[in-house]
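Cross-check.
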Amino acid sequence: MLIEWVDDAKTRKDRWRKDAGLVAREYSSWTVRWTNRVGWAMAATMFVTSALCFIALQLAGSFLVHTP
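Predicted model, tokenized:
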């Protein structure tokens, strides 16, 4: 009885590991690709936004300094 229960638990565990491995492999393949793309898009957007804000602040500062 106990041996059957242990064997059953072992096969369930192996089956769970196999299913989890397949799911993890499928999940990571497209997830990593899209996460990578989204990450690069966010980095580029942040860079462009910070550059535009820097230019706007520089222009506003020079305008404020030169106004009497």
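The two ends are 95 Å apart (CA to CA). DSSP finds one helix and no strands in the chain. Passed to J.P. for a second look.
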